[in-house]
Amino acid sequence: MKTTQELIELISLKKLEENLFEGESSFMGSPNVFGGQVVSQALYAAYQTVPADRLCHSLHSYFILPGNLEIPIYYEVDNLRDGGSFSTRVVTAKQENEAIFVMTCSFQTKQEGYEHQEDMPIVKQPEELMSWNDIAEQFGTILPKSIMRFVLAERPLDFKPIEFINPFEKKDYDNFSNVWLTFHDVPDNLPLPVIHQLIAYSSDYNLLSTAIKPHASKANFGNTQMASLDHSLWFHRTPNLQDWILVSNESPSAKDTRGFTRGNLFNRSGELICSVSQEGLIRPIQKGK
């Protein structure tokens, strides 16, 4: 999967009956289904059940079981309420009759009101930075295979980290990260629900890696079990997918094998478009277990 159009096709589920949809998965460098895929597909399913003038403003979800790449995922949508301005849906993703994921999402008709936003951090521009692939080429002969599989997996996104981490320096880093992301070959005039689904897909990147940075002298992808436990996303303004988007994350806490990360996404023009938060498992792997 190399292009944004291919990603849109992956997210676009097959309708089986009223409020029931079926989706497939794509390998993204991990043996399990990528969490962002499930979030975006669940959001697609919910969008099919709300009035056309209502747009998602927030979603809150839990990852219950790892998804199996080899079998379909079924999405069941429950209509909790359609009010005068808001609609609420619950989406349950299942494989082999077991729930692997659940999401509550809220939709609202557009309304004018008070407005403010946090300023975008002052950072290097993407043209000044190396991409994940550039970094992999520089270190590719000595990086562990598990990291290379993840970094070099075909994806319709490109990432350029601002704070470079040398995987061979045994040191801890600050508890924040800033990364530029962009989508490949974005079609023109995408509907806002599709843009929301693409942002939901991308929002699951760079969260666990931020939570692990303060422990980088000891923790890495080889000796630490990592998995998303929950995921929340708020849509504020219209994302510009034709340009780079800044993802600015911080991890204020890690405790009891769980790391918490929150972040903001900005258009390059400085508009705050989304906010995200996630708690993830960062459990040291015990030798012999």
From TrEMBL:
TM spans (from-to): none
Keyword terms of this UniProt record: Hydrolase, Lipid metabolism
Acyl-CoA thioesterase 2 C-terminal domain ranges (all copies): 155-281
Signal peptide bounds: none
Enzyme Commission code: 3.1.2.20
Domain Acyl-CoA thioesterase-like N-terminal HotDog span(s) in chain numbering: 29-108
Catalytic reaction annotation: a fatty acyl-CoA + H2O = a fatty acid + CoA + H(+)
GO biological process: acyl-CoA metabolic process; fatty acid catabolic process
InterPro entries: Acyl-CoA_hotdog, Acyl_CoA_thio, HotDog_dom_sf, TesB_ACOT8-like_N, TesB_C
Keyword Plastid attributed: no
Gene Ontology terms, MF aspect: fatty acyl-CoA hydrolase activity
Subunit field text: Homotetramer.
Family under the similarity heading: Belongs to the C/M/P thioester hydrolase family.
Entry protein name: Acyl-CoA thioesterase 2
Gene: tesB
